[in-house]
Amino acid sequence: MEDAKIIALLEGYEAGTLTDEEAIAFFQWYSEAGMDNFQRIYAQSNISAEQRSTDPVMPNDFRIQLEEAIRNYEAEQRQQAARPVAFFRTWRLAWAAAILLFIGVGAYIYFQNRPPDSPAIVNNNQPANDAAPGTTKAVLTLADGSRIIIDSTQSGKLAVQGQTTVQREQGSISYNGTDPSNNSGTQSVLYNTLTTNRGEQSPPLVLSDGTKVWLNAMSSIRFPVAFTGNTRNVTIMGEAYFEVAKNPAMPFHVTVNDMDVEVLGTQFNINSYADEPDVRTTLIEGAVRIVNGQRSMVNKIQEVILRPGEQAIAHSPLNTHHSAFTINHSPNIDQVMAWKRGLFDFNHASLQTVLRQLSRWYDIDVQFEGTIPNRSFRGKITRDLKLSQVINILQDLDVKFRIEGKKLIVSP
Q1: Could you give the CA distance from residue 412 to residue 397 in angstroms, rounded to a whole number?
Q2: Cβ neighbours of residue 6 under 8 Å, at least 6 residues apart?
Q3: What was the pLDDT predicted at 370?
């Protein structure tokens, strides 16, 4: 886990504002960090000596919930033994995550009480083949085609595009320029593209109007370095989360596949991966109008307006059983936002859905051997674990995993 994320979790712990998921992530990191690393992170935080607690301690009510979760897990396991093999073990992930946290707390007690400078315990049973989690990284392609690799090492000015300066500041990629209304209008519009590969997630991108964009793995956004005219237009592929700067006089438009998402000022997420069956636009705040550009479709709904907390599902034109759009009035917002919060969130997710996410985040290819039984999973896992740790959590009696180089082999 990156230092910035750990510092945010630590400060949230001190302020008492961590969610259960964030608490799990914090204690998992804390259990493995050792006191030297913990002190290093504490020194970088904004916590004063007066505010500082002596040692992080799991809240008692959280511990009670954890113990109850473990008891439920054990009861579920006993019930599973009496059920047919084909039963879907939907709670496996939730209880496994709870047990991981319990183990982490035990390791934390060990770190607290071991003598200074004593060697840490090393698990020699780690597989020789493994995959590290994804990192914050992206490629910025400038108007002339030159490319800049964006990672955690850059700071300061990256490039100048027309009258706009591109900077890496405070963890973000920012576009700062003069007011385009001051231009004569003869200057051509310059476009940049930010792209993430498998195993990458972009730092925040701050467009010239103040709009913020985050890209998940295997995603891209093409945008003008400065917005001109009466509208603001960008194009995306993959998955992106937007916090759009409000400007009713200059509507914000996102083009994805054959859809146009029109925004006034809002927060929303678009999932448009080519290997997913549908394009899902989830509105967190504000209002959006979505228009499907496939005008040749007969008797299909072509336009929807979303309210906060709703999700528009744009179906493939080959799917004749649905209209062009359907509306989910109560989507799982936590699940939609999980990737941005550093989590996998599986809610009755099929094995194929789970593996598509792992493939993108761990930069691996998935290969099936034999007939794979249907399985669904439910629960949350932090995205900073190694692949071997994740598949140990996902391991099912009738589904086995092994890692061979850049391949994850799945067999019954």
Answers
A1: 8
A2: 26, 29, 41
A3: 84
Whether 342-411 and 135-335 are alike in CATH topology: the answer is: no
Other C-beta atoms lying within 10 Å of the C-beta of residue 55: 10
CB 128 within 8 A of CB 159: no
Least confident of 14-18, 133-137, 246-250, 340-344: 14-18
Half-sphere exposure of 168 (CA within 13 A, CB side): 18
CATH tag, 342-411: 3.55.50.30
CA-to-CA distance for 174 and 156, rounded, in angstroms? Answer: 10
Calpha distance 7→10 (Å, rounded)? 5
Instruction: Give the C-alpha separation, 252 to 263, whole Å.
Output: 5
3-state secondary structure of 64: helix
Q: What is the distance between the alpha carbons of residues 110 and 108, in angstroms, rounded to a whole number?
A: 5
Range in 60-69, 127-136, 299-308, 359-368 the model is least confident about: 60-69
Confidence of residue 214 (pLDDT cuts 50, 70, 90): very high
What is the dotted CATH code of the domain comprising 135-335?
Answer: 2.60.120.1440
Q: In 45-200, where does DSSP find H-type helix?
A: 60-81, 92-113
Give residue 286's region: left, alpha or beta (phi > 0; psi -120 to 50): left
Which residue from 346, 362, 390, 336 is spatially nearest to 214, judged by alpha carbons?
336
> Does 105 score more than 50 pLDDT?
no
Alpha carbons 41 and 1: distance in angstroms, whole number? 12
Q: Where are the domains of the chain?
A: 3-113, 135-335, 342-411
> Tokens representing 294?
């496939």
Query: Roughly how many angstroms between the first and final C-alpha of the chain, as a whole number?
Result: 32
Q: Measure the CA–CA gap between 37 and 68, rounded to whole angstroms.
A: 31
Gap between the Cα atoms of 242 and 383, Å rounded: 21
User: Which DSSP symbol is given to 298?
Assistant: T
Angle at 119 between CA 115 and CA 121, to 5 degrees: 110
- Report residue 306 as tokens: 């979303």
Radius of gyration of the chain (CA): 23
Residue whose C-alpha is closest to residue 161's, from 147, 142, 140: 142
Identity of the residue numbered 132: A
Beta bridge partners of 291: 260, 303
Contact 314, 326 (CB under 8 A): no
Whether pLDDT at 92 is above 60: no
